Amino acid sequence: MTRILLFNPNTSNDVTDLLVRVARPSLSPGSELLHVTAPRGVPYIATRAEAAIASGIVLAVLAEKEGSFDVAILAAFGDPGLGGARELMPVPVIGLAEAAMLSACMLGQRFSIVSFSRALGPWFRDCVAMHGLLDRLASIRLLDGRFASLNTVQDEKEDHLVELALAAVEEDGADVIILAGAPLAGLATRVRERIPVPVVESVVAAVKQAELLAALNPKKASAGTFRRPDPKPSLGLSPALEKLLMSKPGATQS
Amino acid sequence: MTRILLFNPNTSNDVTDLLVRVARPSLSPGSELLHVTAPRGVPYIATRAEAAIASGIVLAVLAEKEGSFDVAILAAFGDPGLGGARELMPVPVIGLAEAAMLSACMLGQRFSIVSFSRALGPWFRDCVAMHGLLDRLASIRLLDGRFASLNTVQDEKEDHLVELALAAVEEDGADVIILAGAPLAGLATRVRERIPVPVVESVVAAVKQAELLAALNPKKASAGTFRRPDPKPSLGLSPALEKLLMSKPGATQS
Amino acid sequence: MTRILLFNPNTSNDVTDLLVRVARPSLSPGSELLHVTAPRGVPYIATRAEAAIASGIVLAVLAEKEGSFDVAILAAFGDPGLGGARELMPVPVIGLAEAAMLSACMLGQRFSIVSFSRALGPWFRDCVAMHGLLDRLASIRLLDGRFASLNTVQDEKEDHLVELALAAVEEDGADVIILAGAPLAGLATRVRERIPVPVVESVVAAVKQAELLAALNPKKASAGTFRRPDPKPSLGLSPALEKLLMSKPGATQS
Amino acid sequence: MTRILLFNPNTSNDVTDLLVRVARPSLSPGSELLHVTAPRGVPYIATRAEAAIASGIVLAVLAEKEGSFDVAILAAFGDPGLGGARELMPVPVIGLAEAAMLSACMLGQRFSIVSFSRALGPWFRDCVAMHGLLDRLASIRLLDGRFASLNTVQDEKEDHLVELALAAVEEDGADVIILAGAPLAGLATRVRERIPVPVVESVVAAVKQAELLAALNPKKASAGTFRRPDPKPSLGLSPALEKLLMSKPGATQS
Amino acid sequence: MTRILLFNPNTSNDVTDLLVRVARPSLSPGSELLHVTAPRGVPYIATRAEAAIASGIVLAVLAEKEGSFDVAILAAFGDPGLGGARELMPVPVIGLAEAAMLSACMLGQRFSIVSFSRALGPWFRDCVAMHGLLDRLASIRLLDGRFASLNTVQDEKEDHLVELALAAVEEDGADVIILAGAPLAGLATRVRERIPVPVVESVVAAVKQAELLAALNPKKASAGTFRRPDPKPSLGLSPALEKLLMSKPGATQS
Amino acid sequence: MTRILLFNPNTSNDVTDLLVRVARPSLSPGSELLHVTAPRGVPYIATRAEAAIASGIVLAVLAEKEGSFDVAILAAFGDPGLGGARELMPVPVIGLAEAAMLSACMLGQRFSIVSFSRALGPWFRDCVAMHGLLDRLASIRLLDGRFASLNTVQDEKEDHLVELALAAVEEDGADVIILAGAPLAGLATRVRERIPVPVVESVVAAVKQAELLAALNPKKASAGTFRRPDPKPSLGLSPALEKLLMSKPGATQS
């Protein structure tokens, strides 16, 4: 049985519930879905500053949960703290953006990212650059203006988001659309018939990529840039994170 | 039930058998594996010229099989004819190299491709460039010298290939190793303990990416650069391919 | 006497005739123009799938004609099968797009490609990328809508094509215009006075680049990525191509 | 009077003292140097995970100190949390790596980064990429092996570091050398005569770039990707950071 | 005392006077400002041809003044002859564009260059490329149409230039604005309140970067690509330049 | 009759004679070869500083000769002043490096530049970058050490240059070799049999590219970045150059 940890780095439990609802039907028989919500931070990470704040919290939560999962999904599009998590954890960790973008690459030459808030733009772009995928990016298209709540934004803005997707196809040359951001989970299925190119549902992509990684069953790197760092003392961090930083490479891996 | 067509664009049936043997254990319960071997071409595609020859044959075989599969794997590392197949087919098509490389991206920053014949170098490099992944490539390392047969090359050269992988990690900065080429299918599992970074088994990666694409259930693009081309007459091609080229977009899609 | 083979990979004899008519006046006294039309394929290659089909046919025709020419021009803008042909042939082979684009580089910083069918876009872009010239590309501008016939498209659409060229100069920053596609051969001369930057006639560029290569008289590479591949058996290919693939490097070169 | 905050994101007070000692002589008469050491984290940030942990702590400290400085220097080569700090703070924030690299650009075409621990490599490379300066990077050269203590590493390893610098010049084509990492502060002056190209002292570069930013007296962006984010509630963060995240753009700016 | 030579490669003395007026208030107590105007060339360098003409004159003037300054500023945005000057001179030389662009990099992710004449576009773009900063460039926006005189262009066009800056922020994604060109010296201060992102005053940036280089006190490279070339005879050049070309590396350095 | 001006921007008449001797046999019947040697400058341009000096002299000589030629070759590998010349002249101007590199692109994927003096490296690299061809460059390999004279360097160093070429093929992945620099004119023909990949003779490439440009008969751009600049007064330049700068676009063109 593969234990997949769906980890929402935002503090919004409703969004976690939504992610779980969308993720569950795509699980293979051999997979089990666990979930956790960030206990600290912001309800919805949207900026570089908020992503910086989330990065350390991501590591603290993963340190806390270490040993209870076989692969983790960082379920915030933008993948805060992904590099550090991949370095520190003995098991694979993937990002929601990473999973969606790599999956989109198999469905066309260039993808567009469509989401509900202009504030997300700089962080999303940094994320695409971090993954070395700028050449595959057609555009990032974001809604301007306010929305009533995270829980209902996908209903409230459905038509506007479809319009952005159509503009991305017609004006920016997108072959594939990614509806980005945890609060839009599940929307891809609803709007797919209104968009003339494939639409990637990020949560499904993440679950299946997690299963792929479990199937590949990669050993933890003891060389290369994602080898576990040497043990290091620390000051004022959470006990679990402090312990993980001090542990010897290999010691935490079963 | 998802019907996955494992299509070997090489003419070597033994290699097809090997691919099927390695692929089968990684299938999910809901997946069925079909296979086909190229009826024309060369036993093992290795050069730009051989890839050019294979490209048209790939389309002819896929046209012949159209309707009998839900997703196809082009099982030659180098992905001959992939773009054309993706454009023409109503269902997803992925390449063995593409699947392996995108999977490797989730396990480290840069991967190295290791294989058994120097002749493969230029084609492999073109393939990485085609997928826009040169920034993620640490190196391509290839064995020099002859080998006894395709069927036994992975046994004969196992130690040499491990040495190349170690050199890629130590000298080229590889975070991940891809043992590339259909004749090396299954080798990753055997040598993983001798290599200090994750080793991607391409065939497993391809099967799981095929299942991912089936789960995403993308519609066939009617816009963007992978929309079906308009109907076109042709001269001297196989009946199935001629018919497919003449069909109206959407007509072949269930 | 330099024997230049003008090879039309499309099946349309009328287009071949046009190409020959435009090419002939630019021949130097020491050059002789031969020509051949693809016996199989499509009347006009426009998509990735059609280019994939053409690639193998290109090699089969060149294998058939081997020994009868000193340099070959692949006269379809997009250069299908060029890499394989360059690898396999003992004499130089150039593409129509390659010749036009490299020539354009000497007349300005960035060029735009203008042609008559939207379907050509993805293939043209792949071609520019293959030649490593994306930094020199200002834009690809293509007509939308149908045209009466390949033979008359340059007359029918002359004004529209000039408008696209003007837009490329004014809006995209083009220093040079390439009117791309074999059916537009000869148009550059007719419209040059209506366009405020240099216009490259691809066929003339290709003839003169062919003469340049003949003057350089390069030896066939026995090293590097365009060395002749080792002899290889094949299945079901044309006798000439099968024989060429089986021949020893150097054996076919005078 | 310009108040420059020298902020050491590492927890090592000795390193802070060293930074201050090296920085002070380069201050202009109109500048005042303040300093602060991270109260939580690790003694010396070296990996992606440690940088992720530091990112949030950097913002918390800057929020705490907000109003008491006119420009801040993040004095860890690697610039943890820089983007978020630049976004959130009403005054300029620069990184030690950023200041050193941009200064090096004025002294040659390509620079090499030389430091004392192999563990720093991946993070340093990510940092160069984040600043868009990979084309200006000749190499990163790092010492292997252990050192006695952070406080004395520059003395202990002086000769080895000079050897790395010489190798960077001779083998990698470096026009300029950056001795990177806060524990090497002051070393550049000592070894400059032994290295045949300019050596950048990062701390001096940072102080003078801070003065430059003060002289430019830039207004806080209210548009673009570094505009202050909208007010946002948060959970479990430090009071100062929570308050800053909830403040209206402009409210904190005098 | 640091002697900073502000060198105007244009022949317009009025522009030199303006540059000096804007530069002087930003000088630190330990700095002294010298100035010189090109005795030959054009009143305002704007094109590749004019920059080519200026390049040699720049070296002749610097050779003439050699020994009288500690750092030089090439005060024409576009930095004509900068590479040659940096190679030949025993002391640091920086360009106005270089100083402004590197300073802008610390204030945002991407900058736009705004100036008063369309003719400047190609040269400015070449300059950004020469410095390897194209990834940090949001756009170059230039006024079309004539202006009354260089001396008054910043007054005459103030409103139009602000409009361009606003368009660069809103449409091109600029985080920072550079008002480029010596005749616009001083304008940044006047219009900063009308532009919602930081505006870089190039002259101030250049003076402070000059002081930074003086503080770094770099030795003249005797290796790398900016080492002094070997002595070389010449024909028909100015006596000072001829002498400098013939001098031994190191001989001119105090 | 096409009048081709072979313009040696070096002051060495012997090199001009050599260039003419190598160029003449490759002329087509309809071409006439004129030549001119720079009256001022250095015997052999090798550095950024010398190229900067040459740039203005190139324009002065071309202005002097304007009207007497139909296409000009700047016969110094490195192409000093090429952009300015292309902008200012009513007829095409090409560079020796440009012609050689673009020709090499048709003979392989990547080329190496081999020459006789280490001093040439930085300038050559800048030249490749200026032409946007860094992706096609395998390496630049240069001899270290002194040579007796420019006139005999190709004889004296023949074996060493062949060794560099072989190393470029074997170690750097070069598909094509360019023996660069006017003093090496003619060497390619002599050593071609000793090098296992095509060797480009730059002078022949330049003559044939000049004939190609004449055949294309491009009009002078009145738009784009190579349009003639507006008339401009100047100070202290040669009468011909002053007159050309003051002339109206179009006035000098027949």
UniProtKB/TrEMBL annotation, chains A, B, C, D, E, F:
One Pfam family cited in the UniProt record for this chain: Asp_Glu_race
GO molecular function: amino-acid racemase activity
Region (Disordered): 221-241
Signal peptide: none
InterPro entries linked: Asp/Glu/hydantoin_racemase (IPR015942), Hydantoin_racemase-like (IPR052186), Iso_Racemase_Enz_sf (IPR053714)
Sequence similarity: Belongs to the HyuE racemase family.
Name assigned to this protein: Asp/Glu/hydantoin racemase
Originating organism: Allorhizobium taibaishanense
